[in-house]
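Researcher: We're reviewing a set of sequences before deciding which ones to prioritize for further study. For each one, I'd like a predicted 3D structure that I can look through quickly. This is EGFL6 protein. If possible, include the structure in C-alpha cell form so it fits the rest of the review sheet.
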Amino acid sequence: DFDWNPADRDRGDGYYMAVPGFVGHKNDMGRLKLLLTDLKPKSSYCLIFSYRLAGEKVGKLRVFLANKKTAPVWEENKGKDEKWRTGKIEIFQGAETTNSVTFESERGKGKTGEIGVDNVILISGLCPED
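Model: Here's the predicted structure for EGFL6 protein, in C-alpha cell form for your review sheet.
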C-alpha cells in the first residue's frame, strides 16, 4: 500500500529505512524485502537489526522469513519511547534455505511518529546473549 523510504539519521552519518506515521490509512501495509543468497542448508544464523516505533498508535512492525510465510517470526506493536531497540531472530536452516527476510509495517491510528529499521546484520551461528 505504501513504500519504505530512506530517512536521515539524527547524527547525520547516513540513512535508515522508515515509514512516517502520516503515510497511508489504518491497516495499510508496506513491505521491505531483503534477499539472502548462499545460506548453507542445515545451518543456523542470527538476524540482528535496530528498530523503533515512535509515536502513539503508530502501528506494527513484523518480520517474515521466506520459507515461513504464514506467520511472522517477530512482531512489535508499540514503542515505549522514541529510542532505538535491538531485535534478534534465530534462523535455523533445514533442507530448504531461507532466501529472503521481509520487514512489514502496518499503519496504526496515529498521525505522528514513524516506524524505522536500521543496521540489519546476518551472522553465522546462534544469536549472542545481551
